[in-house]
Design brief:
- It contains eight helices and seven strands.
- β1 and β2 form a beta hairpin.
């Protein structure tokens, strides 16, 4: 869906949502995982911190953190956990939760949100750039609910531009869970005569990205 909407040809994909944080790229009818979270997804981290700050769920916790971050100006040092091509967010969440609860007079919610975003997004930029260098890619496609975040798009775009590349992203219509991406996947599969009967259908919640055979892409 991201490629269809943006026109990206063969990008490194940053897949960031409430349930996933992966850097992937397509090869031989499979999306290969170059790096991923070792614990919680970035969207889950943002949602949980929003609850600590008692931010509303309307329109979404991540969106509200983004708005608070725009008003922040003081960067607070937080754990920066990149291990090879993988990242970890649980330690960052524990650390910033403690600051918010024990030192509310010292650290404003705006500065905490600003620092959390800058820190975690920098980690994502780092591992995405490594994947680009590894396969010689010049395009980055940001997908998933967290992909709506304008600051993440800006940081990824700056990195891509410095490498002579370009970042592609979509808006909330296509980033968050939606029926369009399901219909797109079904249409692509059907065009390749790939069908599944109701009797043979099931749900696998932990179906990994690299376990999916992409029949409809050469």
């Amino acid at each position: 869906m991201g490629r269809a909407i943006t026109g990206a040809q063969n990008p490194v994909v940053l897949y960031v949502s409430g349930g996933n944080t992966q850097v992937i790229a397509y090869s031989q009818q499979t999306y290969r995982i170059f790096g991923e979270t070792l614990d919680i997804a970035i969207g889950n981290c943002l949602d949980r911190f929003a609850r600590v700050l008692m931010l509303p769920n309307d329109p979404s916790p991540g969106y509200n953190i983004e708005q608070y971050a725009k008003r922040g100006s003081k960067f607070i040092e937080l754990p920066y956990t990149v291990k090879g091509m993988d990242v970890s967010f649980s330690g960052i969440l524990s650390f910033i939760e403690k600051l918010a609860k024990t030192e509310p007079d010292k650290y404003s919610p705006e500065d905490l949100c600003y620092s959390l975003q800058e820190n975690m997004f920098a980690m994502l930029v780092e591992i995405t750039e490594r994947a680009m260098a590894h396969i010689g890619a010049t395009e980055v496609l940001v997908v998933g609910g967290v992909g709506c975040n304008v600051r993440l798009q800006e940081m990824m775009g700056q990195m891509a531009q410095e490498r002579g590349g370009k970042v592609f992203a979509t808006d909330m219509r296509y980033c968050i869970d939606n029926g369009i991406m399901i219909a797109q996947a079904g249409a692509l599969a059907f065009a390749r005569d790939f069908t599944t009967s109701i009797e043979d259908s099931w749900i696998t919640q932990r179906f990994r990205t690299d376990q999916v055979h992409v029949e409809w892409r050469v």
